């Protein structure tokens, strides 16, 4: 299965449209899909996306019941905010206004591949996250911990 990888920054137009990176579109289209599934991250000021098939798989693992003794609350939160966003003829999606606000997006969006999913960040926020991760990795390597 092809994965989402790489980092790309694209412009957001006045209508909230942003181009999905061509390599990300290829992953989606390679799965026979014409849209992406997007939701606000539960923990970070960014958006998380994948093919809608990822969330179909999540549903297959959830028992359909009115009362679930072991409910997956994280899945409930994600499914409650999940949006299916169709790719237009130019490979763009329209970001919902509330998603733009939650991720603090303005004029640009940075797409970050993470294998089976991707994230969309405000570029300067992602730069800060990346620097912090690099510092933690460097510190761990200096201490000899994985």
Question: How is this structure best described in words?
Answer:
The chain has helices at 22-30, 52-60, 73-81, 97-102, 123-143; strands at 7-11, 17-19, 35-40, 47-50, 83-86, 92-94, 108-113, 118-121. It is of the alpha+beta class. The chain has a single domain, classed as Chemotaxis protein chec. Strand 7 and strand 8 form a beta hairpin. The longest helix has 21 residues, at 123-143. It is globular.
Chain-wise SSE layout:
Blueprint: E1 7-11, E2 17-19, H1 22-30, E3 35-40, E4 47-50, H2 52-60, H3 73-81, E5 83-86, E6 92-94, H4 97-102, E7 108-113, E8 118-121, H5 123-143
Antiparallel strand pairs: 1-7, 2-6, 3-4, 3-5, 4-8, 7-8
The CATH topology is Chemotaxis protein chec
The averaged pLDDT comes out at 90
Low-confidence stretches: none
SS-based structural class? alpha+beta
Give a short summary of the structure.
It is built from five helices and eight strands; from the N terminus they run E-E-H-E-E-H-H-E-E-H-E-E-H. By secondary structure, the chain is α+β, with helices and mostly antiparallel strands.
Features:
146 residues, alpha+beta, Chemotaxis protein chec, 6-stranded antiparallel sheet, two-stranded antiparallel ribbon, 5 helices, 8 strands, globular
């Amino acid at each position: 299965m092809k994965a989402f990888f790489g980092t790309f920054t694209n412009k957001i137009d006045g209508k909230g449209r942003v181009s999905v990176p061509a390599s990300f579109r290829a992953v989606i289209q390679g799965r026979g899909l014409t849209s992406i599934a997007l939701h606000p991250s539960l923990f970070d000021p960014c958006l998380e996306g994948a093919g809608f098939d990822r969330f179909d798989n999540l549903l297959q693992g959830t028992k359909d019941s009115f009362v679930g003794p072991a409910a997956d609350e994280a899945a409930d939160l994600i499914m409650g905010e999940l949006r299916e966003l169709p790719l237009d003829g130019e490979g763009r999606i329209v970001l919902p206004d509330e998603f733009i606000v939650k991720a603090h997006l303005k004029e640009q969006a940075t797409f970050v591949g993470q294998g089976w999913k991707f994230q969309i960040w405000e570029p300067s926020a992602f730069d800060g996250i990346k620097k912090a991760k690099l510092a933690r990795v460097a510190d761990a390597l200096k201490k000899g911990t994985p």
